[in-house]
Write a structure and sequence with these properties.
Elements: E1 2-4, H1 8-15, E2 28-43, E3 48-53, E4 60-61, E5 66-70, H2 73-98, H3 102-135, H4 140-169, H5 173-199, E6 201-203, E7 208-213, E8 220-221, E9 226-243, H6 244-247, E10 255-260, E11 265-279, H7 287-290, E12 293-301, E13 313-319
Antiparallel strand pairs: 1-2, 2-9, 2-13, 3-5, 3-8, 4-7, 5-6, 7-9, 9-12, 10-11, 10-13, 11-12
Helix pairs in contact: 2-5, 3-4
């Protein structure tokens, strides 16, 4: 998350004297303002206890440098569980693709043969009991019991034959697809947990200076909570305000001479000119000054030596081309 260091009211007040440029010299426009820079609020994508903060306020950090580490014990335990779940899913899919073993099919065939024999024996018992009943030497109960045994044996044979058919046919396509989906879900879960562990290592997205340490080692933080603030001092800019009469005498890309209060001079270049006019602050004492309109101008600064810091006052001097004086 990015935010800009603004010194709004102060910059306005400092710029009041420049709203009409340098009228004594038509070849030059002078405007005062304050240096600003981009602040990056560094946060962790995952929550947990801060194990380590590798930097402190004032430290210079490089892009990709490790800044903090969040505890990953829970994520690593969950990862171990997910890896075991993937192994189960792989084994289940392999079994469904391989189909039944020869031993299982042979066992099922033996069960079918046994059920067939039992059904044949039950039929013979029923025929014998029916013959005895027809001759008057048997009972209806004995015949009914034999009939029931034959029915039970027939059902057992049907079940054995059905099991043998399933083993020979193997798993259905839908069952194999479901097993593949379970394996894919396990893989995705593992990837998610590994990324969570990776995200527990917080790195800097830019080169800059640590200007604020918001959290401390040992604190329990939530996902997205700010840990540090890194300020990009490699690309600061000076914000000044130019009066409407001078707006037509400057151009984006135009060079400027930037002078600090200590008299140090550096080169700059106009990178932004606002299209919207703003009133000078109401706390300016005279009515004539209050009604003036000014336009915000940003001057990009060369800051290899780290001279410019956010909030530093400075003055921008623009040389006006001869055809615009």
């Amino acid at each position: 998350m990015r935010s800009i260091t603004f010194v709004g009211a102060c910059a306005f007040i400092a710029a009041v004297a420049a709203t009409c440029g340098d009228r004594s010299d038509p070849s030059r426009i002078v405007a005062s303002g304050h240096v600003e820079a981009t602040d990056v609020r560094i946060s962790a994508k995952v929550g947990g206890r801060i194990l380590r903060l590798a930097v402190g306020e004032g430290d210079r950090v490089g892009k990709g440098q490790e800044l903090a580490e969040i505890d990953t014990v829970d994520a690593r335990l969950a990862l171990a569980e997910a890896v075991a779940g993937r192994a189960r899913a792989e084994a289940d899919l392999a079994l469904r693709l391989a189909g039944a073993r020869k031993e299982e099919i042979a066992e099922a065939e033996a069960e079918v043969a046994q059920a067939t024999a039992e059904l044949e024996g039950a039929r013979k018992d029923l025929d014998r009991m029916q013959g005895l009943l027809d001759k008057g030497s048997g009972t209806a109960k004995a015949r009914d019991d034999a009939f029931t045994r034959r029915q039970v044996a027939a059902k057992a044979l049907d079940a054995a034959e059905e099991r043998l058919r399933r083993l020979r046919a193997g798993s259905r396509k839908e069952e194999i697809d479901a097993a593949r989906a379970r394996l894919a879900a396990a893989e995705a879960r593992i990837g998610q947990l590994r990324q969570r562990i990776e995200d527990a290592r917080v790195t800097s997205p830019l080169s800059g200076i640590v200007t604020e340490k918001v959290s401390e080692e040992g604190e329990l933080v939530t996902a997205g909570q700010v840990l540090l603030v890194v300020t990009d001092l490699d690309d600061p800019w000076l914000t000044v305000y130019v009066g409407e009469p001078d707006l037509g005498r400057i151009r984006i890309g135009q060079e400027a001479e930037v002078v600090t209060d200590a008299g140090q001079t550096r080169k700059g270049r106009i990178t932004f000119v606002s299209t919207t006019a703003e009133f000078t602050p109401k706390n300016v004492q005279t009515r004539d000054e209050r009604v003036k309109l000014v336009f915000k101008v940003k001057v990009g600064l060369e800051n290899r030596d780290g001279l410019f810091k956010p909030g530093m006052p400075a003055e921008a001097r623009f040389t006006v081309p001869k055809d615009h004086r």
